[in-house]
Design a protein that fits this description.
single chain, 318 residues, eight-stranded mixed beta sheet, 10 strands
Length: 318
């Protein structure tokens, strides 16, 4: 071997050594990132669903005997869900049937991802004061309910709540307002989409501080993670809202840092301009409200917006 060949051989060996060194360094640098991605992928539902698994006690929420009724519903896959049926304030005692009640709409309330119905006392009381009956089932895995929350399972729970309203309370679709808060907006939008597709339109859909999709919300908070690739529960409301043909009210706080205001704007823009009965869609922007403080800083604005919405849909029902 000539001296030149020997030098070339040494250069190649040095080059290979440097390449292996850079590969090892790159592996060391990216290994923590891949570990974080793996943990996020495996534990994502633990991050999404944050239930309080303690029983929801009506007395702790300030409700007295007769003001609400404890209700249960068996889902299509055999789980028994617990909830409350709260009467409109001017009725007093929760009625056994709504078949002959044309004065009071029924709100089926789908909450956000944390806590349970005990923590929505302010929202329930406001709706009752506006003359609405309220049906509120906790999702599976929340409060004393068995099971595990997933997107598909919450859709089953939502359908179970709707079926309870129709079959057990005797409500008609045109009496029922579907209400979704935060993650519950994804649940409510899916239910309204399914009902409208079946030509069984509810009286209206109210979305409060909800997202265009859970994927968009996750990507906003974790731009350094491949959320769009690994997220399992996606709640694609932005794809479903164009096909929701019942009256629509969107309420969103401009100071929301959890689900930014532009999510509400985009959902509103994607929805039909008017419902099947001619009621125009409406977006209410709350200038001082964030995500979790709405009922503390903008309760009056929310009350007025919901009251006007209920009045607008009432004229098309009677």
């Amino acid at each position: 071997m000539t001296t030149t060949e020997q030098l070339d051989s040494v250069d190649r060996a040095v080059s290979r050594s440097r390449s292996r060194k850079w590969i090892r360094l790159a592996g060391c640098a990216f290994l923590p990132y891949f570990c974080v991605v793996g943990m996020f992928t495996l534990l994502q539902r633990k991050l999404i669903y944050l239930p309080d698994r303690n029983p929801a006690v009506a007395a702790e929420a300030g409700f007295v005997n007769g003001e609400l009724r404890e209700v249960t519903r068996v889902t299509s896959d055999g789980l028994t869900l617990h909830g409350w049926f709260v009467a409109a304030s001017d009725v007093g005692k929760a009625p056994t049937t709504l078949a002959d009640d044309d004065r009071h709409p029924l709100v089926i309330y789908f909450p956000g991802n944390a806590g349970h119905r005990r923590y929505r006392e302010k929202e329930i009381r406001q709706l009752a004061a506006l003359g609405c009956h309220v049906l509120f089932f906790d999702y599976r895995g929340y409060a004393s309910n068995p099971g595990n929350p997933t997107e598909a399972n919450l859709a089953r729970d939502a359908r179970g709540a709707w079926d309870y309203a129709i079959e057990e309370l005797g409500a008609r679709p045109e009496q029922i307002v579907v209400w979704g808060e935060s993650l519950g907006g994804g649940v409510a939008t899916r239910l309204a989409w399914e009902l409208c597709s079946d030509q069984t339109r509810p009286r209206g859909l109210v979305l409060r501080c909800t997202f265009t999709s859970l994927v968009d919300a996750g990507a906003h908070h974790y731009p350094w993670l491949p959320v769009r690739l690994v997220l399992v529960d996606r709640y694609p409301s932005i794809e479903r809202i164009p096909h929701v043909t019942c009256p629509l009210l969107v309420i969103h706080g401009r100071q929301d840092r959890i689900i930014p205001f532009d999510h509400g704007e985009k959902l509103f823009a994607a929805a039909p301009s008017a419902a099947h009965n001619g009621v125009p869609k409406r977006l209410v922007a709350l200038p001082d409200a964030g995500h979790n403080d709405m009922m503390y800083v903008a309760a009056d604005e929310i009350r007025d917006a919901v009251q006007q919405f209920l009045e607008s849909v009432e004229t098309t029902v009677h």
